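User: Structure please.
Assistant: Input sequence and predicted structure:
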Amino acid sequence: HRQCLLEAAFQRLETLTQQHGTIQGEAVRAALGKLGLKATDAQIKRFVNAMDRNHDGSIDFAEFRDFTLLLPGNNLGAWFDEFQRETTPGIEDVQSEWSVRQHYHNSKSTVKQLEATADLDTNTPKERDTSSAVQGPTETQQVMIQLASGGLAGATSRTCTAPIDRARLLMQSGRAQGSLPDVFKATVQREGLTSLWRGNGINVVKIVPETGARFAIFDYLKKKIAQDPTTITGAERFVAGGAAGAVSQALIYPLEIVRTRLALAPVGTYKGALHCMTTVAQKEGMRHLYSGLRVSVIGIVPFAGIDLAVNSALREIATQQLEKRKDVHVPSVAVMLGCGMVSSTTAMLATFPLGLIRTRLQASGMPGVPQYDNFIDAMRKTYAASGIKGFYRGVIPTLVKVVPSTAVSYAVYGTMKEWLTHRASLPKS
């Protein structure tokens, strides 16, 4: 009987999120993922809201039954597809979301009549022919895809923008004066062209796990923190982004110290990344490998929070706009690039002074660099030497770096993620 099939389907959804008696948007998302169906937050929200008659954020079996009895098919994927067809503008026989919802929840008498005439197909999921179904990536595969795509994107973008980054470090630390072209010219004349990429090897080693972890942790936390995973607020995105940034930064912080030292030290000071790390640990103590970690975390929390929250919100808005078009469902590289430029630039301008103080603490005590006792001491000496503008020394090359860095990063990340997801979704031979 149709009722038995619906009860079994509802119980399977309950087990996905360990709920008892009710289901929420996260269960729908997980079930669609297992079926290999892609759905945006906005699509899932509309689907769940259509079932949720009393608007309490959860769906009991009565609501689930009344909703699905009126839809063809015998599984969640078929019901979701039909709902999208009925409520998506541009498809024939279209109805507004309001009218469809009113139709589905009309009255108990209508439901009883439909129970008597509904499709009584009782095939279970095990009996359905899935030979032609496209299976989506598993949860483990999704994490690996995020790590690989984020790591490659970070490594590529950092390598392309390494000269600008080194010039920024030289200007922030106080070892170079003048405009960005002047710093480039002086550095090349003094140390050679390849010196502009000094420290890039360790930078790549650092950025691969950092970027990959940040994307993966953010995606995980924003769903866990959100009270309603189908409608994540700006504050929830900020908290998830800040936490993701802090965790990923702490994981690789000693490599950040090594990168800064290699970029700023005179030629011949260190033989390589490992020699730099062991030298710092032996001469200055293991503690110095975490020098500035506190201010770094203080800086990365608002930066990552703003960056990831703004980017996530902008991409969701873009996706909602694209849903109105039948031929486009995923933001293009150009759209992702624009979102990344806006979010990264906003976050960088808001947190640049903290980044400058962090860099000065990391380079503290090196030849030609003032000695700072702590965060407050670095702020006081910076203000005494240059005033407010001293906290934004190097902001121009950093701004210049944002444009090409985000361009390369988002292009590589978007392309790789789509390609790897597609490969993971191919039917196994």
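The chain has a mean pLDDT of 75.
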